Amino acid sequence: MGSAREVPARPVFLHSRSNEWYTPDAFLALVRRMFAPGGIDLDPCSSVAANTRVGATRIITSEEDGLHPRHEYAGNVFANPPFGASGNRSTQSLFFERVVQEYEAGRVRQAVVLLKVARFVEVFGAVGDVPGANAWAYVPPQAGAAMAEA
After folding, report:
1. How far apart are CA 95 and CA 61, in angstroms?
2. By percentage, how much of the chain surpasses pLDDT 90?
3. Which domain of life does this protein belong to (predicted)?
4. How far, CA to CA in Å, does 123 sit from each of 54, 76, 113, 131?
5. Is the dihedral of CA 145, 122, 110, 128 positive or negative?
6. Is residue 41, in this structure, part of any structural domain at all?
7. Do 122 and 93 touch, CB atoms closer than 8 A?
8. 81 with 96: CB under 8 angstroms?
């Protein structure tokens, strides 16, 4: 009758036991190049372990809650928000909206927010309404996998 091997009902990239996903080094190199001559001033979706790769001057961990109003975002902000939800809203959408609010308040100089394509489509109208938000990149899954292996 064949193997008793478990086959996931959905592709692996759509589920996980954890929402702790680190940004591939190749992506981070592009972010640093975009922010040059400065660096990444803030990563509001980070951990001490993740920041060994990201190299942000300041991080906000999940325990500190990067969405809490007590945290002010400033300078060059890099965010790779976790998957998941808070109430009935995606965590990625909430972080994206927060970056936009801080940008509109004049505290964020420039930002890179990595979003799953579904979240990008959900918030695309908001991106188009943000002055200075003029660059988007879609990385096909094959290219993202190749960059992650590099």
Report:
1. 13
2. 36
3. Eukaryota
4. 25, 21, 12, 15
5. positive
6. yes
7. yes
8. yes
